[in-house]
Amino acid sequence: MKEAEGLQGTADQPKASPEALAFLSSIEVDQCLFADSLVTISDSGRELGEFSVSIQKASYENEPCYMVHANSHGAIDNIPCGTSITAYVSSSLETLEQNHHEYMKCLYGKVHVYLLQEVKKQTFTLPLHSIQGFVSEATNFIILRILAQQKKIPEKIMFLSFNADTQLSVATYRELGTKKQVVGKEMVDVFGIEMTISSGDDIQASWHCYFLPDGHLASRVQLGSPVTMNLLQLPPIANKDQKPVFEKKPLVWEEDMELHSKFLDRKEELKAGHSSYVRDHPELKTLLADFMQFLLLRKPQDVFSFAQDFFAPFDFQRPPDSSFKTS
């Protein structure tokens, strides 16, 4: 096991811009609570897998927050592989916790497998004030949806993020404009955003993402990758202004022939069942007659307590009440 522990943070450490901090303090995440599902396609047009991302309300340590779940799975050279991200994010887009999991399934029996395992642990300690404006992979999905819905990217917004080597870098967003894209059988307008992770003059990675007007992801591609993620079907349109009205209708079952017929049938069924039970248990009449006779003789003020004492001897799990013994 290799372990590296230390303090990361120097005078050359990048910082988020004031415009980025102002953006984080002014956003509303509730408009981004939906799921996207895209198909991963190679440059030759072959489907390789699926990509999905969802944002929903949740709680973290009994505090309200948002849960972001992104999942990508497919096959590379016929070998199944995938990536899963689950994160909890506050309303100000502070990442409370994020788990990143990658997997690859080996095809045993078809190849010679040599299993090598190396566990590498890295611990980074950063002053809290130095990572203001930090955005994780999960937070990035929320920011992209908000920018797409606004169709405008504020100038000079520069966030902090990690690159592939977990080094603190700069995350920037740039407008790509509007273009046409075929989704299903329709031609729709999509708004493009470029997201870049860079360290100084060294650009680590860039993504081009195009969105529908409501913020649903229409396509996503990492520059230099032969794989593109495309939306194949338009999501259903939700009309938030129009709310369904359900009128309460009184139920007059006596006027409903079917319900009234069922009521009469059930009534006769119960009466027949009661009569049959009384015939099968003749001691019931004798027991009730004794109780009524004893009740009228004593005329107690508390009828319920008297009835409880009278029938107590028939309960084999409790002794008779002392007051009834006295009576």
Largest sheet: 11 strands, antiparallel
Tally of contiguous helical segments = 6
Rounded to an integer in angstroms, the radius of gyration calculated over CA atoms is: 35 Å
The overall pLDDT average reads: 82
Order of helices and strands: EHEEEEEEHEEEEEEHHHH
Helix % is 10-25%
Q: How do the strands of the widest beta sheet line up side by side?
A: 6-5-4-3-2-13-12-11-10-9-8
Shape: elongated
Number of strands: 13
- Strand content is 35-45%
Taking the alpha carbons of the first and last residues, their distance comes to 85 Å
Structural class: alpha+beta
Unreliable runs: 1-10, 322-327
* Total tally of structural domains: 2
Organism: Astyanax mexicanus (Blind cave fish)
Pfam families: CATIP_N
Keywords: Cell membrane, Cilium biogenesis/degradation, Cytoplasm, Cytoskeleton, Membrane, Nucleus
GO cellular component, one term: nucleus
Write up what this structure looks like.
With 327 residues, this protein is an alpha+beta fold. Helix content is 23%, strand content 38%. The protein has two domains: 2-106 and 114-230, no CATH class; 253-326, no CATH class. It has six helices and 13 strands. Strand 10 (186-199) and strand 11 (202-211) form a beta hairpin. It is elongated, with a radius of gyration of 35 Å. This is Ciliogenesis-associated TTC17-interacting protein. Keywords: Cell membrane, Cilium biogenesis/degradation, Cytoplasm, Cytoskeleton, Membrane, Nucleus.
